[in-house]
Each structure stands twice: as C-alpha cells, then as structure tokens.
Amino acid sequence: MSDKLIIFDTTLRDGEQSPGASMTRDEKVRIAKALERLRVDVIEAGFPAASPGDFEAVQAVARAVRESVVCGLARALDRDIDQAGEALKDAKRARIHTFIATSPIHMQRKLRMEQDQVVEHAVRAVKRALQYTDNVEFSPEDAGRSEEDFLCRILEAVIDAGATTLNIPDTVGYSLPEQFGATLRRLRERIPNSDKAVFSVHCHNDLGLAVANSLSAVLNGARQVECTINGLGERAGNAALEEIVMAVKTRKDVFPCHVDIDTREIVVCSKLVSSITGFPVQPNKAIVGANAFAHESGIHQDGVLKHRETYEIMRAEDVGWTANRMVLGKHSGRNAFKTRVQELGIEFTSEAELNDAFQRFKELADKKHEIFDEDLQALITEAASEAEDERVRLVSLKVCSETGEVPCARVTLRFDHQEVTGTGSGGGAVDASLKAIESLVDTQSHLVLYSVNSITTGTDAQGEVTVRLEKGGRIVNGQGADTDIVIASAKAYINAVNKLLLPRERMHPQVAGDV
Q1: pLDDT tens profile 321-342
Q2: How many CB atoms lie within 10 A of CB 169?
Q3: What is the pLDDT of residue 304?
C-alpha cells in the first residue's frame, strides 16, 4: 500500500484573501459542502480572529461539515488560538493551525523578536492549541527564506510540544522545485523526532511554480499539500488542488502515494468557486479550463478518434467534464428543478427559499431555451448575494444607445426601502448605466475591474459580469448574471455597492503577514 497524500484545502482562508474574493458565511458553507463531496481531507475554513464575520463563518462551516477535518488559522497568540478553539468547538473533527515567522527579515523587521523568543512563542502556541484539539498544525512562516538550522530547531521543539503536522510554506513563492524538495528532505533527515509528525507544504505561485514545488516536496517525503480550488489565493495564488490531485493520480509510476479525492466533483467545485468569487477560470487552465480537453488540430483530432490516449492522458469524465444530465427548460417542473440543484450540492434552508429560486429559474427559462448547470449555479449565487444585507436593489433600467449619439441611461433603485431615479451618460450603454447608479448611491469608489464572461454557449447565453470597486483601501467584488449584458453589469455594480455599504467589521480584512 502506498502512503496517503492528505489534501488540505485553503480556498476558504487563503483563497478568500485574493483582493475582492471575500465570501459571506453562507457562501463559505456552500463551498465547504462541495469540498466535502470532493472528499477533501482538511478544510481550512478561515481565520477566526480576523473579524467577527470570519469567526461566524468558521463556526458555521464547523457545524455543517461532518466528514472532513475543519481547520482554523491562528497566529501564535493566546487570543487567536482561543478564538479558533471557540469557533471550532462544534466541529466533529477539528484542527488548529498556528504559525509564526521564522525568516531573518520577518523576525527582525516585522516581529522584532530574537530566535529564542520566536521558539518560545511557537511552543506556547502549540501547547495552548492542544487544550482544544489533539490535531495541531504548525507553520514557520516564510520558511523558504529561513535559515535551515533555525528551522530544524523550532520544528523539533514544536513536535516535542505536541504538533502533529509541520507545514513548510513558501510564503512568497521564492523557491525552485529542486531546491524546495531538497530542503524538505534535509529537514526530515536532520530533525531527530521528524517521524512523529506529518510534513506538509504550502506553496505560493509568484513565479508560477507552486504546483511544481509542491510535487517536488511530495517526492521528497511531504504527505500533505495545502492548495486551493482553481489556484485561488493571495497575489498570484496558491498551488491548484485539481492539478496536484490529477498529477498524483495520473503519474502513479512516479509518486509513491495516493489521494482519496472524488475527482468527478472537481469541475463542479471549480465552477462553484468561480461563480461565488467572481474570478473566472482561464480557458487554457489545466484540468478545469474550457479548453483543457479540446482538440482543434486535425492531427490531434484524428489521433484521439482512433485511440484517445494518443493525445489525452486523462479522461474528461474522470474530472467531471461530461456526465448524463437532465435538460431543464421552461416546461420543467419544480421537482426536476429541485432534484438537479440537489445533485449540484445546493440545499435550500426553507420552502420560501426554494420557491424564490424556482421563480428565478422560470424567469430565466423564458429568456433562453436550455438551462445548464452553470446557469443554475449563477442563479443560486445571485439569489444568495441579493439576500445578504441588501440595501440597494435594481427596480428598472432603460438604456438608449444609438449610432452617432451619446448613450444615456435611466435607472430606478430601491434604496433603503425608498425608490429613487437617476440618469447618466457615458461612452457606452454599460458606462451610462453604471454612472446612473453611482449618481444615486454616491459611493465615491473607483472601478478597478470590469470583466464579462459567457456562462454557457449560444447567443442566448447568460453573461456573467464581475466588477471590482475600491474605496479607501477596501476592495469588494460584485457579480451579476443576465441574458442582457447591460442588466448583468448593473446587477454586478449594485452587488458590489451593497458590500461596500456593509459595516467594515462584517468584511474579511486582508490579513497581513500570512502563511
């Protein structure tokens, strides 16, 4: 039997720290349940001490997930660890992940601590975490730029203190595969009690090497990889879960380990995370990109038709790309709708919520002939976004765009239970609509991203729009979907505005100095 490779997903924690990717509590629970169906071993649900909103989200995930281990991140501070322990108390299986920086630049410039103090804090943090769970993980932040002798010293100390997992993060994506793998191997060889803990890695993608560094570490003894769906994460992101998993499964001749992931859930999970965060997946993205299993070259097409393995090393079906699915349309009934969304892992908390979603489905079905799974995901995500502390809602929008004339828009909003109407003009129909909305809400924010993505194929496809607003260093994403791209744009802008109007403490802060 080969060793098991533990898949530790940090989409809900590190993934959420992508600027604009903040998720609500209910969105985190939806993704956590999808990760559980994917059979992820550990779900890092968030950073409970970061904000009251993040504490509530970790608590909700801990209560909702029964199969996977639910993990909370904590700095090596008593308050952080106590917050994590409290948030995780209802989890069936809980883990606390604590960390402290160990590189010279971080210790000197950020912590202003000597090595002895850092070791003392690390040991105390692990012992305190053990008061809440016997499953404790420790990370030396910025291990990739830390002195190896000091890493050996602090890791040996935390193992003696009771840490069961040691995570070696390449926090700034500085390492190269051969170097990183060799470092991990030497740590395992040099630390006397290394056999008492599982070695893990958490690699960032600043040089595009997160997956390569992670796999190099696995070949050198790491038996846990920390990764995210679609490679979501701070700056250039993290190692992509789907790429790690499929590399290990496809190259069994190389990797002396196996994963327990249900790979047929990968694409569904990828689309859910993309829909909720508003971060589209690039078409040529490995495994989950729209072109991942597409062949245009005549030579390639001929080869695949004669024998699939000539140009395909994986089956599209094995990662969830093709499956028999019921076609939904305007004649589909409530039961068919409910059954399909349940198959997608979407659960309704009340009959009223189901009725609202079914009504939205019927309205969409009147606009387009076939409803695809991606449409359903967007529909449910939009409904959830509107229900979350909504102060502004679109009532009507009228746009005039004519050759040779300046486009203009007239919009009516329900703003704090009162209907208001405004107008705007701009370089195009979308620009005029957004300016009309801004004239009423007056957020004085800056539009830093406007992205349009076709959810499915066909001229009647829904357009999914993502906007990113920035105000005073605070960044929020808004999403909207509609068969009319102008209306989708207005919905996305209003969704972002509603997030800006939330009290600051409800939003997840971008946590500085993280693993």
Answers
A1: 764 445 678 778 888 888 888 8
A2: 24
A3: 44
Look up residue 97 and give its amino acid: H
What does residue 154 show for φ and ψ, rounded to 5 degrees? -70, -35
Three-class DSSP category at 250:
helix
Overall size of the chain counted in residues: 515
CA-closest candidate to residue 19, choices 272, 234, 188: 234
Residue with tokens 């209802």: 90
Residue 297 has pLDDT above 80, yes or no: no
Q: What is the pLDDT of residue 512?
A: 39
Task: Tell me the per-residue pLDDT of 298-314, one tens digit each, with 9 for 90 and over.
Answer: 544 455 456 556 656 77
SS3 assignment, position 362: helix
Q: What is the pLDDT of residue 151?
A: 97
Cα 493 from Cα 489, distance rounded (Å): 6
Residue appearing with tokens 């993290």: 238
pLDDT of the residue at 298: 52
Q: Is 418 left (phi over 0), alpha (psi -120 to 50) or beta?
A: beta
First to last CA, the chain: 32
pLDDT band at 441 (very low <50, low <70, confident <90, very high): very high
The DSSP result for 34-60, as a single string, is: HHHHTT-SEEEEE-TTS-HHHHHHHHH
What's the average model confidence in pLDDT over 370-377?
78
Average pLDDT over residues 333-353: 81
- pLDDT digit string (tens) for 155-201? 999 999 999 999 999 999 999 999 999 999 999 999 999 999 999 99
CA distances from 62 to 128, 148, 362 (A): 20, 36, 34
Going by their DSSP bridges, the two strands 198-203 and 3-4 should be labelled as: unpaired
CA distances to 12, 114, 367, 399 from 187, in Å: 29, 22, 60, 64
| CA gap 333, 136 in Å, rounded | 49
Count other C-beta atoms under 10 Å from residue 504's C-beta: 11
User: Residue 222 is encoded by which pair of tokens?
Assistant: 């790491």
Using DSSP's 3-state secondary structure scheme, residue 345 falls into coil
Cα 37 to Cα 15, 40, 62, 346, 389, distances in angstroms: 19, 8, 15, 12, 29
Distance CA 358, CA 376 (A): 10
CA distances in angstroms from 486 to 181, 368, 461, 462, 464, listed in the order given: 50, 17, 14, 11, 10
Give the C-alpha separation, 173 to 159, whole Å: 26
What DSSP element (H or E) covers 435?
helix 429-441
Partner residues linked to 477 by β-bridges: 468
How far apart are the C-alpha atoms of 427 and 117, rounded to whole Å?
Answer: 59
Confidence of residue 476 (pLDDT cuts 50, 70, 90): confident
- Give SS3 for 159: helix
Instruction: Please tell me whether residue 19 adopts helix, strand or coil conformation.
Output: coil
